[in-house]
Each structure stands twice: as structure tokens, then as C-alpha cells.
Amino acid sequence: MDFRLDDGWLIRPLGGNTGTAYMGVKEQKKLFIKRNTSPFLAALSLEEITPRLLWAKHISTGDTLTAQEWLNGRSLTREEMKETRVAKLLARVHHSGVLSKMLQQVGGRYIFPGELLNDYFRGLSSELRQHPLLREVAARLRAHPPKLDYHECEVCHGDLNHKNWLLSDSNQLYLVDWESAALSDAALDISMLMCQYVPRSEWQEWLVKKYGAQMTPTFNRKIGWYCKINLLLSIKDKHQRGHFFEMNQDILQLAEIFSEQRD
């Protein structure tokens, strides 16, 4: 439903899964407005990770609206997701002490390896629970979880779909939609992106030359662990939504990685 703010901005819904995104229109001006977004948005704006935050207002419903500059642009294509500029922006997020401090201050949640395994098994269908490959992978992940202390956690976006990357008409790249942000191992984000968008044969080059990772045996094991848990979670999600072709593609990818990276 459209509504108008006291200062004359007409707010129109943009649609989407959450129903919290709007376009603000006043004369010839436009704003991108969201309802009840995290206070973390202010830090992301200051670091130029997201478009500039202009204001935040409480409205009569008790909700908070935040307004960001409206940028004409487009989402990245799947092919563009393996480019250096994507890797560099993601690395800047992960290694930012400012973002980490701010997310902690606004009560950002922590995600540890054990929680990811618990999420996988919670409500898992009997069909997937009895699948030989999935059962063996899950058992090995449970037996060899990577170590992660609170002080090692970095800011992770948590939903690196190509539609959450905005390339403006001025060629500035932004990462948007931070509702899944958490403090965790950067390998959680890295593996999520690689599994979706980077061909297996290019993983080493992407990690070293584009993201800037230091390849050590410990880091390799972590990447392998998080790749496998991300694929398990993706398989579970696609099974629940009835996307069986995509689910089987994930199973094939998991089988390939598992045969190469047995712990």
C-alpha cells in the first residue's frame, strides 16, 4: 500500500520476498527506502559498501524507515561474480575492523560450525537423511569441524546471490541486502560464492590472485569444510522447495569436492 510521509515523500512498495523495500518519490527525486533494517546499515554506508544512507525516521506504526540514495544500475550476472572487483570488495568487508566492531555493537549474531550442522539436520527429510553420500559427508563434517574462536570472527554477508550485488551506472560496485549478516569465519562467505559461481578449476586462482588469500593447509581444510556444509544446506533448501534438478546439480558438485577433499 502507498503512503505519504509528513515531508511529502510518497512511499511505494517495490515487491520482493520480504516486502520491506520501497521507492520514495517526491517531485523528480527518488530514494530507496527500507523498513526496519539493521542499524548496521550506517556503518556499511560510511565504508561505501552500500549506497549512501541519507536518513532514518520512526513512523506512527512503530517501524523505522531508512532512506538511501537511489542509484540507477543493475545486478551482476552470474559470470561477473567471479571477477576481481567482487573478490576485492568481499575481502574488504571481511577484513574491516570498523564493520566488525559496529556489528558487535548492534548485537550481531555469531555463527559457529556446529550451528551450521544443527541447521542442516533440523527438519531434514528422511529421504535426504538416508542418502548415502549426504550421510557420509555430514558424518565427516561432524567429526572434523574447523576451530573458530570469537576473536577470529569477521563480518560475513551470508547471502551472496548475484542479485545482491549492485553495479551503478557510474560503475561503482555495492553489496546490498544485509539481513543475513553475521560474525563468522570468512570461509563461510568465500565458499558460498565459489560453490555458486566459480568453476572448480579456477578456485585456486580466485582465492589467491583475486581475493588475496594465503593458501595454507589449515585454510584449505576450512574452505573444504565450509564448501561441503554450504552445499548440504543448499541441497536441503532445494529439496524443500521442490527444485530437484538444481538439487541434483548440487549433489554432483558435492560428490566431486568430497572425492577430492576427504579429511
From TrEMBL:
<keyword id="KW-0808">Transferase</keyword>
<dbReference type="InterPro" id="IPR011009">
    <property type="entry name" value="Kinase-like_dom_sf"/>
</dbReference>
<dbReference type="Pfam" id="PF01636">
    <property type="entry name" value="APH"/>
</dbReference>
<dbReference type="GO" id="GO:0016740">
    <property type="term" value="F:transferase activity"/>
</dbReference>
<feature type="domain" description="Aminoglycoside phosphotransferase">
    <location>
        <begin position="50"/>
        <end position="207"/>
    </location>
</feature>
<dbReference type="InterPro" id="IPR002575">
    <property type="entry name" value="Aminoglycoside_PTrfase"/>
</dbReference>
<dbReference type="InterPro" id="IPR052077">
    <property type="entry name" value="CcrZ_PhaseVar_Mediator"/>
</dbReference>
<protein>
    <submittedName>
        <fullName>Phosphotransferase family protein</fullName>
    </submittedName>
</protein>
